[in-house]
Amino acid sequence: MAPSNWRTYLVTQESLSSGRSTVEIVREAIDGGIDAVQLREKDTDTRWRYELGLELRELTAAAGVDLIVNDRVDVATAIDADGVHVGQSDLPVAIARDLLGPDAIVGCSTSTVEQAERAEADGADYLGVGTIYGTTSKDDAVEKDGVGPKRVAEIADAVSIPIVGIGGVTADNAGPVAEAGAAGVAVISEITTATDPSRATARLAAAVESGKSPESGEPTNE
Amino acid sequence: MAPSNWRTYLVTQESLSSGRSTVEIVREAIDGGIDAVQLREKDTDTRWRYELGLELRELTAAAGVDLIVNDRVDVATAIDADGVHVGQSDLPVAIARDLLGPDAIVGCSTSTVEQAERAEADGADYLGVGTIYGTTSKDDAVEKDGVGPKRVAEIADAVSIPIVGIGGVTADNAGPVAEAGAAGVAVISEITTATDPSRATARLAAAVESGKSPESGEPTNE
Question: Which ranges does the record mark as transmembrane (chains A, B) (predicted)?
């Protein structure tokens, strides 16, 4: 699936999954219609992430869901992921692209128009834009207070690659992010801490859809 | 240079370099005759290590010194390093070998004969054996009290790939490690915290040489 078709994007973190395994959360998110999964799992060792990645690859491939690896191009290659997601402190987009080749998906975290334009020029396929509303689960969030849907609109205006809004996004506030021009939204805790991760995924997708066509769906919060 | 010819091996850690940069330490170690440098720099971000790696590649290539990257196969490829060093919690040796190809150097940290035999079977070119004497600078050291030169001898007996002893090694205690069958020794603080890193490197090399031929050199400590 092309990133432009992603509505919902789960970033995994077993330590924030209310005692459940990431495999269990991903399985439920797939049931709820997740479009992309990013293997992140900050502060865990490489071997553990590699082995988890092999499991997630099996699950996501069977479901036609894209699997992206945070930061590690080598792990992405080793588990045959669809691509990699790099932040401003990871390998440069151009290097990730060189290592992975033209067919892989390369995404980049950006919080400003300047970073977004640079990432697009360097060969990124999509942008993770945020922190939208501020968040506590992403330790390296650039702006704690959130850049808001307004920044999504500014970046969408400046680049032609799809945007995934991230940071503090929930089913209740995803609509304005999509309305501002994001293809979809990425979340950790909205799905990983949900009592019913499958339902949380479906609700998030519905919120994105209604944000894209506010006249035909549920009313958005703005 | 083949790992069997390594006498001294510097593992970098700028945070343990007494306020000096890793580039400065490596430059001095090269002056002192270092044989191999491992870019490690635990707890720093990928971009920083990548950029440092580009600098170290330039310095080491000009001096004919091997450059190895800890854990990250992708960074090793991106900076054109000679190889990678993986621990028991990193990517498996066989995967690193697959990703890097047959010509790259792949090393593996081992503390037992079983791990050593497995690493050799999986395609490792050399082993980092330790912790020899215990150390405080390697947070993930497997055995705090040290396995001693005796374990080096046991592993040297079990495998045919070269061994580098690591963990608590200094010029004063390197001799017995070489005498036990190690090709060389790896250090962090013995070089990075030395007032004169160049001289520290040369002293370490002399200690290894005297351990290899105890009858012809300085007396060892045992």
Answer: none
Closest partner residue to A99 (CB to CB) among B46, B77, B90 is B77
Is B77 part of the contact surface with chain A (CB cutoff 8 Å)? yes
Architecture of domain B3-212: Alpha-Beta Barrel (3.20)
Helix (H, G, I), strand (E, B), or coil: what is residue B17?
A: coil
Provide the CATH topology of domain A3-210.
TIM Barrel (3.20.20)
Say how far apart CA B94 and CA B73 lie, in whole Å: 12
Nearest C-alpha neighbor of B26 from the set B54, B45, B48: B54
Compare all CA atoms of chain A with the CA of B50 and give the residue at the minimum distance: A91
d(CA A208, CA B5): 60
* B106 reaches A (C-beta below 8 A): no
Give residue for tokens 């390197």: B174
Going by their DSSP bridges, the two strands B8-11 and B184-187 should be labelled as parallel
Each residue's pLDDT tens digit, A158-170: 999 999 999 999 9
Minimum-distance CB partner of A89 among B47, B78, B90:
B47
Interface check for B80 against chain A (CB to CB < 8 A): the answer is no
pLDDT tens digits in sequence order for chain B, 222 residues long: 899 999 999 999 999 999 999 999 999 999 999 999 999 999 999 999 999 999 999 999 999 999 999 999 999 999 999 999 999 999 999 999 999 999 999 999 999 999 999 999 999 999 999 999 975 555 554 446 799 999 999 999 999 999 999 999 999 999 999 999 999 999 999 999 999 999 999 999 999 999 999 765 455 454
Q: A209 — contact with chain B (CB < 8 Å)?
A: no
In chain A, residues with a C-beta closer than 8 Å to the C-beta of B94 are none
Residue B31 near residue B60 (C-beta atoms within 8 A) = no
Q: Evaluate the CA torsion angle B186, B187, B192, B194 in order and state its sign.
A: negative
CA dist list (Å): B63 to B4, B66, B67, B85 = 18, 9, 11, 21
Three-state DSSP class for residue B173: coil
- Measured in angstroms, the CA of B198 and the nearest CA of chain A are apart by 31
Q: What is the ipTM of this complex?
A: 0.92
B101 in contact with A at a CB cutoff of 8 Å? no
Confirm whether A216 is a catalytic residue: no
B40 is in an annotated binding site: yes
Closest CA to A63 of A94, A97, A24, A26: A26
Gap between the Cα atoms of B133 and B92, Å rounded: 26
**Which residues of A make up each annotated binding site?**
38-42, 70-71, 90, 109, 135-138, 168, 188-189
